[in-house]
Write a structure and sequence with these properties.
The chain is α/β, with parallel strands linked by helices. The protein has a single domain, classed as Outer membrane efflux proteins (OEP). Helix content is about 60%, strand content about 15%. The protein has 9 helices and 9 strands. The strands form 3 sheets. The chain has a 4-stranded antiparallel sheet with strand order 2-5-8-9, with no helix packed on it. The chain has a 3-stranded parallel sheet with strand order 1-7-6. The radius of gyration is 40 Å and the shape is elongated.
C-alpha cells in the first residue's frame, strides 16, 4: 500500500509555480545587478577620492624624515700634543631624524587649477553615474512593459479561446441534434485550433520577454518558464497538453500609468546627466590647461625642520637642530612641453563643449518627439478603446444572429477575430504609452 501511494505521488504532475512581478522590484533588482551601473558608481567614488587628494596638496605637508650614513674615512684636524693631538672631525656614523614641514606658497595656480580639474572631473563622473542609472532603469522598464504586453496578449487570446471552446460545444451539440451543420462544426473546430496555435505562440513570446527581464534584473527563473501563462487564466484548462509550469502576474496597467503620468507634463530637465557630464568635462580640461600654463611661472616653497642630528661636527654627541628654508624655482627650458599640454587641454575642452551642444540639441529633439508621440498615442488609445467596445458588441450580436439563423458561421468567425485584433491593438497602444512615458521620464527625471 505504501509503495502504491509513493508511485501515485511520483506520477502526479508537479504543481505550477506562481510568480508576481512588480516594476519597483524589477527596477531595484536591475540597479543591484547591473555591472554597468556599479562601474559608473565606483568610477564616481574614485574621482571624488582623487579630488580630495588634489585639494590636500594645497595644505602644508608634514613628514617625518630621517637619514643614516656611514663614512669609512673621517678627516682629522692636526693639533699639537699639548692640545690633545689629532682630533677627528666627526664620526663614522651620521644620522638625522625629525619632522619637516613643506608648504607651496606660490606656484602660479598649478595646484589650485589641478584641484578644480579634479573637482569637475568628479562632478562629471557623478553625472555619468546618474545617466547610467537612468539608462538601466529605462531598459528595465522597457523590458517590463514588453512583458506586460506579452501577458496581455496571452490573456486576450486565452479569453478568445475560452469563447471559441464554448461556441464549439454549443455547435457540436447542435450538430448532434441536427440543428447545426457538420461544416459549421468543422469550422468551429478550426477556429479553436487557430486560437490554440495563437496561444502557444503568445506563450513563447511571453517566455522570451520573461527571460529578457530576468537578464536585466538577475531574476532566478524556475524550470517551468518555457511556456508560462497569465495568472488570470490559471485553472481554466486551456493548455491542452501544453501545461504551464509557471503562472505570472504583473502590476495592473492603470496602477503603473498613474505612476508615470507626471512625466507627460514635466519640462525637459535643464541639465540632463549626459549633457552635464560633458559640461563638467569641458570645465576640467580648461582647468588643466590653466594648470599647464601656470607651470611656466616661478614656484616658491617654504620649508621648516626640527631634527636630532649626530654628530655635532667634531663633538661626538647628538644635538637638536632647527632650520627653515625658502626655495624658488623657475623653468627656463622644457622643450615646449607645458605649452603643448595646455593647447591639447584647450582643444579637448572645445571638443567636449561641442559634444555637449549636440547632446543638448538631440535631447531637446527627442523630448519634443516624445511629447508628439504621447499626444498621438493618447488619441489612438481613445479610438482603440471605442473600436474594442464595438468589436466586442459586434461579436456577441453576430453569434446571437447565427443562433437565430440570421447569419453564417463565417460572420461569427470574422467578428470574433476582429474583437481579438481590436483588443490586442488597444493593449499594444497602452504598452506604447508606457514606453513613451518611460522615455520622457529619462529626460525629465519626474518619476520616483
Amino acid at each position: 500500500m505504501r509503495i502504491l501511494i509513493i508511485l501515485l505521488l511520483a506520477a502526479a504532475p508537479a504543481r505550477a509555480e506562481d510568480m508576481a512581478l512588480t516594476l519597483r522590484a524589477a527596477e531595484n533588482g536591475a540597479l543591484a545587478v547591473s555591472s554597468e551601473y556599479r562601474a559608473a558608481r565606483l568610477s564616481a567614488e574614485s574621482a571624488s577620492a582623487a579630488a580630495a587628494a588634489a585639494g590636500a596638496l594645497l595644505d602644508p605637508r608634514v613628514t617625518l624624515e630621517g637619514s643614516l650614513r656611514y663614512s669609512q674615512v673621517i678627516p682629522e684636524m692636526a693639533l699639537p700634543p699639548l692640545l690633545g693631538g689629532p682630533r677627528p672631525l666627526g664620526d663614522n656614523w651620521n644620522y638625522s631624524v625629525g619632522p619637516s614641514l613643506y608648504w607651496t606658497v606660490f606656484d602660479g595656480g598649478v595646484l589650485r587649477s589641478g584641484r578644480e580639474a579634479a573637482l569637475k572631473t568628479a562632478a562629471a563622473r557623478r553625472a555619468e553615474e546618474e545617466d547610467t542609472r537612468r539608462q538601466v532603469l529605462l531598459r528595465t522598464r522597457t523590458a517590463y512593459f514588453r512583458l506586460q504586453l506579452a501577458l496581455e496578449r496571452v490573456y486576450l487570446i486565452g479569453e478568445n479561446l475560452q469563447l471559441s471552446l464554448a461556441q464549439l460545444a454549443d455547435i457540436s451539440n447542435g450538430a448532434r441534434a441536427g440543428t447545426r451543420s457538420r461544416l459549421d462544426e468543422i469550422r468551429a473546430r478550426e477556429e479553436t485550433l487557430d486560437r490554440r496555435h495563437d496561444l502557444v505562440q503568445a506563450r513563447g513570446e511571453l517566455a522570451s520577454a520573461l527571460r529578457d527581464l530576468a537578464l536585466l534584473t538577475g531574476l532566478d527563473l524556475p524550470s517551468g518558464a518555457s511556456l508560462p501563462m497569465d495568472s488570470r487564466l490559471e485553472g481554466l484548462g486551456l493548455e491542452d497538453g501544453q501545461d504551464a509550469g509557471l503562472y505570472i502576474k504583473a502590476e495592473p496597467y492603470g496602477q503603473i500609468l498613474q505612476r508615470f503620468l507626471p512625466a507627460a507634463s514635466a519640462p525637459l530637465q535643464k541639465a540632463l546627466p549626459d549633457v552635464a557630464a560633458l559640461d563638467y568635462s569641458a570645465g576640467a580640461y580648461k582647468a588643466m590647461a590653466g594648470s599647464y600654463r601656470a607651470q611656466r611661472l616661478p614656484r616658491l616653497q617654504l620649508g621648516a625642520r626640527s631634527s636630532i642630528d649626530y654628530p655635532n661636527g667634531p663633538n661626538i654627541y647628538s644635538f637638536l637642530q632647527n632650520s627653515a628654508s625658502l626655495s624658488v624655482s623657475l623653468p627656463l627650458f622644457e622643450g615646449g612641453s607645458s605649452s603643448d599640454k595646455e593647447r591639447g587641454s584647450e582643444l579637448a575642452a572645445g571638443a567636449a563643449a561641442e559634444r555637449k551642444t549636440w547632446a543638448q540639441l538631440v535631447a531637446e529633439n527627442q523630448f519634443r518627439k516624445a511629447l508628439d508621440a504621447q499626444a498621438e498615442l493618447q488619441a489612438e488609445q481613445a479610438i482603440d478603446k471605442s473600436a474594442a467596445d464595438y468589436a466586442q458588441e459586434a461579436a456577441k450580436l453576430a453569434y446571437d444572429s447565427y443562433k437565430s439563423g440570421g447569419s453564417t458561421w463565417l460572420d461569427v468567425e470574422s467578428a470574433d477575430l476582429k474583437e481579438l485584433q481590436a483588443r490586442t491593438a488597444s493593449a499594444s497602444t497602452g504598452a506604447e504609452i508606457l514606453l513613451n512615458l518611460a522615455l520622457l521620464d529619462s529626460l525629465t527625471g519626474s518619476v520616483n
